Amino acid sequence: MKTQHMNDLFSQDSERFSKFSIQLPSLLLDYSKNRITDKTIAHLIDLAKDCEVEQWREKMFNGEHINRTEDRAVLHVALRNRDKKPIMLDGKNITPDVEKALAKMHAFTEQVRQGKWLGYSGKRITDIVNIGVGGSNLGPQMVTEALKHYSDHSVQVHYVSNVDGTQIAEVLRPLNPERVLFIVSSKTFTTTETMTNAMTAVNWLTSSSFSKKSVAKHFVAVSANKENAMAFGIDEDNIFDMWDWVGGRFSLWSAIGLPIALDIGFEKFLEVLDGAHEIDEHFCQTPLEQNAPVILALLSVWNCTFLGAQSQAILPYDQHLHMLSAYMQQAEMESNGKSVTWDGEEIDYPTVPSIWGELGINGQHAFYQYLHQSNNVVPADFIGSVESVTPVQGHHETLMANFFAQTEALMSGVNEQQVRDDLAARGHPKSYIDKVAPHKVHKGNRPTNTLLMKRISPKSLGSLIALYEQKIFVQGIVLQICSFDQWGVELGKGLANEIVKELSTNTIKETHDSSTKGLLKYYCSSRAASDN
Ligand code: F6P
Questions:
Q1: Mind listing the UniProt keywords for this protein, alphabetically (predicted)?
Q2: How far is ligand 1, taken at its centre, from the CA of residue 191, in Å?
Q3: Model pLDDT for residues 497-529, shown as the tens digit of each residue
């Protein structure tokens, strides 16, 4: 396949589009613009079977502890188990627990949205501030942004994730403490950034209410660590459960999704779950050859591990999906950015590409030069909608014309003879053509997937996200890595916790390397100078 050009594959087989596309209820997946033939797909399906993808899928849905290094189940699928079938975990059916948590979310969101939850001065809540980072921020914020069209603006939802004080200061500046409800979202309730922001929020509130008692009226928590949340000062009744069998990056379906439900209403939040459930059903019931998450995973393995692509772009052509690539970065790179197998064996093959992206139209005026003519091939997922939820006359057609044109151009390219013929037809002299032609050649043969939704909706978005979640799951199985832990974030966190002590006492350890030591000393001396 390394020498095959997709132009030839398309001219040899007029059925490529119908053969290599999958129609799901909420979206069409066209994967024909990949460097594949029937034979390639057959080999990749064999690889999936050799890796026992189906058996591992059963293990996940059956609550086995497939997160082996943390000895936990991986059951975010239970959060959107909309037909409420029993899901067993260690001999216990957890579906009733999930239903109870959803009922608590429902009651809470109605109370707040109907103005029945009152602040310390008896005023209704108008603003929600979600304090959380990583999976406790990206999922809810990406979904809130994506479904803005569906918000009735009963409350305004804001997000604080960065420990840089600028963010919380900017968010709180225009708000009235009497009318703000904080959601402290943290599975562990130990994350330094979140705890720091939450303490600042408490101080902001109490500097207005002059009473610690007001915390109970203005703070709720979402956590698997009820003890820490209560120790922080949050009423037990105001703590929403999440469980250790829900990974942070897969948690938006849980009470971590509270800001989503507050913004669009609980019924529409359930539609997000419905969309995800639809994909779970497809994933569990569809033969691998027609299984969208399986195909996407195998194509990513094909492009990265076999064809050598080192990154993959997520390019939404829908303004509402402007945070999708940020969400996908955590989902994929925190899951599969690893280099040892389940058994701890060193891996000597590339696992997953780095994930990056931007709104497609903005990208066309920023980095598409690279996509078309650099010598690094970047497979890309193009995501768009047939209908816009905000029809402004004459815009959507232009947007979608670019959407379709770019994947065609990336695939077909334009060769030197075509460039020369075009320049000659425009009347350019041979000297100019000789000079410019090599620079205008587009090699093409750059793989893309097209995911075309009917329109962005709570349900179609839920399906899109779940599609990527299950793709990431299959990738991990095929790559033989544990997709569910994240040991790689521990070292940096640990060193930061030590350095923050050195900075607060101005005592720099001699054990640091000379760069770190030099930087820390420079920082402390510069800070001292500016203090004087
Ligand atoms: O980045 C590490 C991580 O543990 C993520 O997996 C998680 O989503 C994030 O930090 C926040 O963790 P918590 O929800 O426990 O505050």
A1: Cytoplasm, Gluconeogenesis, Glycolysis, Isomerase
A2: 7
A3: 999 999 999 999 999 999 999 999 999 999 988
Residues tagged active-site: 334, 365, 493
- Tens digit of each residue's pLDDT (9 = 90 or more) over 435-475: 999 999 999 999 999 999 999 999 999 999 999 999 999 99
Angle at 246 between CA 384 and CA 230, to 5 degrees: 120
pLDDT of 531 higher than 90: no
User: 438: how many CB neighbours lie within 10 A of its CB?
Assistant: 9
For ligand 1, what atom is nearest to the CA of residue 138? 8
526 Rama sector, left if φ>0, alpha if ψ -120 to 50, beta otherwise? alpha
For the chain, what is the radius of gyration of the CA atoms? 25
Measured over the CA atoms of residue 425, residue 430, residue 436 and residue 437, the dihedral's sign is: positive
Is residue 109 packed enough to be buried (19+ CB in 10 Å), middle (13-18) or exposed (0-12)?
buried
Mutation pick for ligand 1 pocket among 67, 70, 133, 253 (CB with most ligand atoms within 8 Å) = 133
Residue identifier of the C-alpha nearest atom 10 of ligand 1: 134
- Gap from CA of 500 to ligand 1 centroid (Å): 19
Ligand 1 atom with the shortest distance to the CA of 251:
8
Contact between 182 and 112 (Cβ < 8 Å): no
- The one-letter amino acid at 161: S
What pLDDT was estimated at residue 235? Answer: 94
- Distance from C-alpha of 499 to C-alpha of 519, rounded to nearest angstrom: 12
135 lines ligand 1 (CB under 6 A): yes
Q: Could you tell me if the CB of 293 is within 6 A of ligand 1?
A: no
Angle CA 245–251–255, to nearest 5: 100
| Burial call 292-319: b when 16+ CB within 10 Å, e when fewer | bbbbbbbbbbbbbbbbebebbbbbbbbb
Q: Is 325 in the pocket of ligand 1 (CB under 6 A)?
A: no
User: For residues 26 and 278, is the Cβ–Cβ distance under 8 A?
Assistant: yes
Q: What are the tens digits of pLDDT across the range 265-317?
A: 999 999 999 999 999 999 999 999 999 999 999 999 999 999 999 999 999 99
Please state, in angstroms and rounded to a whole number, the distance separating the CA atoms of residues 63 and 73: 5
How far, in Å, from the CA of 512 to the mean position of ligand 1?
A: 27
Using CB atoms within 10 Å of the CB of residue 379, give its burial: 0 to 12 exposed, 13 to 18 middle, 19+ buried: buried
pLDDT by residue (tens digit) across 10-26? Answer: 999 999 999 999 999 99
**CA of 199 relative to ligand 1 center, distance in Å:** 18
